[in-house]
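Pasting as-is:
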Amino acid sequence: MAEITHEELEERMLDILEDICEDDEVRARRDEDLFALGLLDSMGAIELLVTIEEEFGVSIAPTEVERDEMNTVNLIVHQVEIRL
């Protein structure tokens, strides 16, 4: 994959999360627990991991990270970024 800036990654992840969560609230609540807010559930989390692999070529197994390491927009961006 071509080099991607943090800003580009962040914007693409926000688009993906907005689509999966079906709510633009993810853009304003980047440090809040998406599960606690009811914006993401276990099926949505799996869809997110599949989409991340398709979009960025980054594989994150559900057993690889704890939920509290990937439950906010900023943490999700971080997990993808460290694997690029």
